[in-house]
Amino acid sequence: MTDFRGKTLSWTSTIAPSSGNASMASGTASSASVIELALHRPPNNEIGSETLAELEKFAAALPSYKSAQALIIHSEIQSGFSAGADLRELYEQSMKMSASNRAAGVRDFLERIHRVMNAIDAAPLTTIAAVHGITFGGGFELALTCDIIIADRTARFCFPELRLGLIPGFGGIPRLKRDLGNAVVRDLLLTGRSFNATKAQNIGLVSQVAAEGQALQLARHTAAQIAKFDAGTSAAAKRFIKPIPEAELRWEIDLFCELFARPAVEAGLRKFVESTEAMPYLP
Amino acid sequence: MPTLADTTEQILNLAAQHFKVPRETLSADDDFFKKLDINSLQALELLTRLENHFHVELPDYELQGVTDFRTLAERIQSRL
Fold first, then answer.
1. Which of A162-166, A211-215, A235-239 has the lowest mean pLDDT?
2. Burial of A80 (0-12, 13-18, 19+ CB in 10 A)
3. Which of A12, A46, A142, B56 makes an SS bond possible with A86, Cβ 3.0 to 4.6 Å?
4. For the segment A52-63, what is each residue's pLDDT rounded down to a tens digit?
5. Mean pLDDT for chain A?
6. Among this protein's residues, is A138 annotated catalytic?
7. Are A228 and A21 in contact (CB under 8 A)?
8. What single string gives the DSSP state of each residue in A8-39?
9. CA nearest A220: which of A155, A154, A157, A150?
10. Distance (Å, whole) CA A142 – CA A81
């Protein structure tokens, strides 16, 4: 049964298939559950104010799932996991505001999305992003909050923000740097290129590559394995190995806001929104 | 190593199969955006399938300005 069904996303909690077994560490019977968060905002799961509001609901509800040991985030949209921030909404909202209100509005949006991303990143349960297709910009950044990324063969990862005169603003750079190191960030960010699931696995970003359409199934298998472990031990291990890069995240917000104030960004956004080019998504 | 003609043929077959277009309607000099009636996201889908098929990595900036199957094949051929 669905616990929440919104316009842009839904979530469901289910008892993990292994929950009838004794917990491996505690030796007690567990009733561990797995939460599945499904993104379903057409056309490409663009993250705008409506998605943000529903992600905030999810982040607020997350601590109430006391028996949950794993979270899977996936997309029900055919084109992919998410194309990132809703640039059309960002542009249209910005154009309605004065320069000072625009800067304040962007900062407010970033502060809110960072709170959500940080909550998922630091959640005591083990988190899995099951991705396919376009996993770009803010969508890539959402996947990076997860402990494990499972990608099907159609997945493609990219930070296209530089073509707009911006940097990724949802915490992607500090998280990717934390997880993989600076060289990978430079390659992706400074060229704006995308790469596929095989490359992502080769560099350590992706944990498992699934056949087309099978990422969610593999994530469910992985979640069932995770649910066998003692929840407290998993949470302690996660705290130990996955610190939130708070100072860099704050710096990222400041830098994004500084760049956003430049005229080049307005021009870049307008070009994207009004583009009739064959390949506006290609950096 | 396959010839450019082999590579082009494989691309045409793969594109026809994936986008469900009769193979005989596609030729090397066709504009694949127009002939396959695809948008930029679908072009990236095609790119991923070509990378997986040929076991190459093709940065998408190399596709800027590329619209026909033959030039696409040349870009792939240079990485085989």
1. A162-166
2. buried
3. A46
4. 999 999 999 999
5. 90
6. yes
7. yes
8. SEEEEEEE-TTTTSBPTTT-SB---EEEEEEE
9. A150
10. 10
